[in-house]
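User: I'm writing a short report section on ligand binding and want a predicted complex to refer to. Could you take this sequence and flavin-adenine dinucleotide and write out the structure as tokens? A short remark afterwards would be nice.
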Amino acid sequence: MSQDIYVIIEHLRGQIADISYVLCAAARQMAAASGGNVVGLLLGHNVKDLAQDVAVDRVLAVDDPLLANFVPDVYQQVLANLISASAPRAVLFGDTSIGAELAGALSVQLGLPLVSYCRNVRADDGRLTYVSQLCGGKVMVEGELPAPTALVAMVPGGYQAEQGKSTQPPPVETVAPPALAAGRITLKQYIEPESGDVDISKEAILVSVGRGIQNADNIELVRELAEAIGGVVSASRPVVDQGWLPTTRLVGKSGKRVKPRLYLALGISGAPEHAEAITDSQTIIAVNTDASAPIFDIARYGTTLDLLDLVPVLTEKVRQAKQ
Ligand SMILES: Cc1cc2nc3c(=O)[nH]c(=O)nc-3n(C[C@H](O)[C@H](O)[C@H](O)COP(=O)(O)OP(=O)(O)OC[C@H]3O[C@@H](n4cnc5c(N)ncnc54)[C@H](O)[C@@H]3O)c2cc1C
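Assistant: Sure. The structure tokens for the complex follow:
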């Protein structure tokens, strides 16, 4: 058993995922309280040099051709070994499609408690207290982090990714993998998002629309506003699932991560799967009739006006101002 905090360094196609830095930021604070070190776990093939800027005390790198692509049961074999061998105080995963899949399976396999949707972990008098956001971010739950070892799947929002970066490359220790069996899933092809549409991850102004828009016809109002302010329309998942906008415009866990100068969220509640993809926006403005919607937790400005009343007036005002 140790007081170390393990961080799963998530990466895809040669790039460290932003959530990994968020985890490092959380782990640094936790380790200061637990008295342990922050240890990054880097699984893959020929990726040893990827972890140059993660703020950890050391990296344990596990290299094997079978780890070249993310295959849940193969990654699980390696992590189960590492975690049971050293019993760290906590293991942090991103609450992403990769991290959540691993954390759930390992919790069952190793019989360890899992804290999901964790937003932050505080140190109170040496004890670690987690805050998790449930029900799409509407309910915050607080509790003591189970001991001796807890698995924690973290959503973004509680820490700045920058706090988890370092200019000093950490020492990397190579760890031999256990004898690995090939997984039941094979990656056949990486499918790039459809081309031919705008790339919302590169746009400076996004006018994003959620279920609050109510029907496909109302999207036109939003298009007019976007055009007036020189932006592009994007959307939350219900809007795309209804077929009102194409998948290329989807912001979120199953869509794109965006970092515009302005993100105008119209009728979007701010569920974690959406919110996690907009935290790098410079300014978020939210329009939502529900004052307790979680989007207001991350928005710099907001109003509870009905978007259907506000949007046409706003478009008109912008047009007048430009004349
Ligand atoms: C594995 C997984 C992946 C997911 N991936 C994504 C993803 O990539 N992107 C994504 O967006 N979601 C994703 N989701 C779904 C996500 O959990 C939410 O369900 C979704 O983001 C909710 O979209 P919304 O905010 O538009 O709708 P709702 O949550 O229904 O919110 C609509 C909001 O509009 C407000 N409203 C209603 N009428 C008006 C009005 N007239 N004026 C102003 N405000 C109004 C309401 O108060 C409400 O807050 C995923 C879920 C899962 C489980």
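A remark for your report: Residues 136, 210-212, 236-238, 250-255, 267-269, 271, 273-274, 287-290, 293, 306-308 surround flavin-adenine dinucleotide (CB under 6 Å). The chain has two domains: 5-175, 200-322.
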